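Journal club prep — side note

Before the paper discussion, L.F. wants everyone to see what a predicted structure for a comparable chain looks like in token form. Sequence:
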Amino acid sequence: MEVTQQQAPQNIGWIEVVAGCMFSGKTEELIRRLRRAQIARQKVIIFKPRIDNRYSTNQIVSHNTQALESIVIDKAEEILTLAGDAQVVGIDEVQFFDMSVVGICNKLADEGKRVIVAGLDQDYRGVPFEPMPQLLSVAEYITKTLAICMVCGNPADRTQRKIANADRVVVGAADSYEARCRKCHYIPD
């Protein structure tokens, strides 16, 4: 749900979460919201984890190549130091941060900032991907994005890993993953 001017809380901060599987448009939606805030002349700051270097080392980039400059960080704690007087804080690939990011997002919202995060809500096995469940529970606004299943064409909410690797975090794009529906998704051996 897009937060309209009439719906936006007044004189307080809030958290928006954009969650979904890979290729569902999460980063594209994050970029859209952040660009609108920039157009409204709000001070925007954007963060991404260093581990996500798929398309750029210093930008958040959607699979359809939309991009915005970002600050690359190693730990979520850096966000508090760097957010400064920003009115809007964007965080992409939030699932790559530890659980401290939940408290950090809450603190920023308590300071009156609009916090918009995007990330995978499930890992490649279909298991909730922390810290997303916790962020979803404290967010005022939640958007679940869906992709198209690469097998049958139905709406997809799962990420299918196409490579053999049992690690929970393996950074990759279309070479390693594709979107799948519940029926077509399977857990690789």
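L.F.'s comment for the group: The chain has a mean pLDDT of 92. Keep this in mind when we get to the figures.
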